[in-house]
Amino acid sequence: MNDAKTTKFSEKLHQAAAPLWQKSIHHPFITELASGKLPLATFRYYLTQDTKYLTAFEKLHEKTAALLPQSQGALLLKLANGSGEDIQRSPMLQQLKLSPAEIQQAPIAPNNYAYITHMEHQLNVDPAAAVTALLPCYWLYDEIADYWKDQTSPVPVYQAFFDSYQTVGFDTSTQQLIGLVNELAANSSETVKQQMMTAFLRSSSYELGFWQMAYTHQTWADLADN
Hints:
Layout: H1 9-25, H2 28-35, H3 40-65, H4 70-82, H5 85-95, H6 100-105, H7 110-122, H8 127-147, H9 156-163, H10 168-186, H11 190-216, H12 220-225
Helix pairs in contact: 1-11, 3-4, 3-5, 3-7, 3-8, 3-11, 4-10, 7-8, 7-11, 8-10, 8-11
Pfam families: TENA_THI-4
EC number: 3.5.99.2
Organism: Limosilactobacillus allomucosae
């Protein structure tokens, strides 16, 4: 008889992504948000790109939900409609005088485009992989907020960013999506579970790239220089 605790699939995902997540938690973009040293122009760039990302992210929830059984799809739609990130961001956008027109006119940055394209691709791989690709955006932000919870940024709009991910509602959404990923993994083949792992790690890589993208104000011209 084996009394060893069964490791949840989400725990395997978390362990595999740990090196990437540690780099995100300690990325200069995040540390300078916490210290208040990040230039407002850099945060403005981030919010512009993140608003574009969140628009696509919500649509990805809807597309993925359509591939799942009704109860699982309903949960994903609930998460898409209940995260409240757009409401949380609205005061930040107003404070930085970022209008919808300015955001729409700004070109999507390369890393942002690649991240969204990666998640779109998972729709053609497997529904379980598509769900898992969404998870780092929840779980990593939850962990970043938890790590920096004891430090107050001297810049109010930066502290508002951290506070927006320290709510009970956001933590609940994160735990619900983790639960859905575990449920899907429990009913998936080893091949699909590997696809889920790959999707999770690539999303985690793009999350790290998102901070760097914002920190350097990445443009398409940057790619031509490399």
